[in-house]
Amino acid sequence: MIRKILVLLLTVLLLVAIALGLFTWKQHAALEQPLAVTDEALLLDVRPGDTPSGVLQRLEAEGVLEDAFWLRLYWRLNLSGQSLHTGEYRLSPTMTARDMIGLWQRGEVVQYSLTLVEGWNFRQLRSALQNQPKLEQTLDGLTDAEIMSRIGASGQHPEGRFFPDTYRFTRGTSDEDLLRRAFARLEQVLEEEWQQRARELPYKDAYQALIMASIIEKETGVPGERGEIAGVFVRRLARGMLLQTDPTVIYGMGEKYKGRITRTDLRTPTPYNTYTNAGLPPTPIAMVGREAIHAALHPADGTSLYFVARGDGSHVFSDTLNQHNRAVREYQLKRRADYRSSPPPRQAPADNGNVQ
């Protein structure tokens, strides 16, 4: 009787060992199988609500892998507490199913980038968002005021309220999400710089400093001149002089601006014409970087009250109107063919998806 029991136990143990061996072999084979990916990488889109089991079944149905059952079982036994991050995963031809699951464990989703450029206006910013195909478009058809309301800034003018930087995002991120980030970043940078501002500046609040920074941003072609340009504008404000800066006139012209401004344009009143209106314009005229904000809040000491563009992005600074007029005659009335009265427009770098 005892012998029969021993034989039975040995038989059961043998069967268990065979089953475990078969299980281990099948699972190993499923994990080490190469993915059926062509020469080009495949982007696997994991959407909100997707589960590992569901994604594995989808990949099996699409012929990317086999034995999804064993892979699902592996995840359930070994990674049941691991969340599956949404986004895109780049699957390459050399990857195995184990490599893919490793990507899922590490959350290595493909990230894209969008660069918002210093000096852009809000219209250009909206266009950049609309032209980024990996962003979920939720703001099309909304007015500027409606957009500001959506991001929690109801009643605020959108111009200059977003920080220029390179923003990384995953597929499924909305244009609204990215705008919120850029808005919050500008608020943070402006507050940091405002708290460290120089004394006796002619600004009532940080918003006026932001307006000044936007003018400096548009006037500056050589980064080292920001502080000196800020000094000119601050001294003119302190003396009650008109700012007389072309970028504000151009902004006020809107779609009427065709690449050049005339004397008639300088005399045509708009809320942004600093040749006809005293003080700062009512809003910023462009997005600004930290350097321009810093310059507006730390203007360089000096006595210059005028500057004129040389045509290469740099400027000649003058203390008196007579000196300024001589510089105008030298650098503007005798323009070279390649003369530029303002810095060349800055472009955003190309957008490429990266894994991070």
TrEMBL record:
It catalyses: a peptidoglycan chain = a peptidoglycan chain with N-acetyl-1,6-anhydromuramyl-[peptide] at the reducing end + a peptidoglycan chain with N-acetylglucosamine at the non-reducing end. Residues 334-356 are annotated as: Disordered. HAMAP family: MltG (MF_02065). One of its GO terms (molecular function) is lytic endotransglycosylase activity. It comes from the Bacteria. GO terms for cellular component: plasma membrane. This is Endolytic murein transglycosylase. CDD domains: MltG_like (cd08010). The keyword Cell membrane applies. Belongs to the transglycosylase MltG family. Coiled coil: none annotated. It holds the Pfam family YceG. The record marks E219 as: Important for catalytic activity. Keywords: Cell inner membrane, Cell membrane, Cell wall biogenesis/degradation, Lyase, Membrane, Transmembrane, Transmembrane helix. Functions as a peptidoglycan terminase that cleaves nascent peptidoglycan strands endolytically to terminate their elongation. Its EC number is 4.2.2.29. It comes from Stutzerimonas kunmingensis. The keyword Transmembrane applies. GO terms for biological process: cell wall organization; peptidoglycan biosynthetic process.
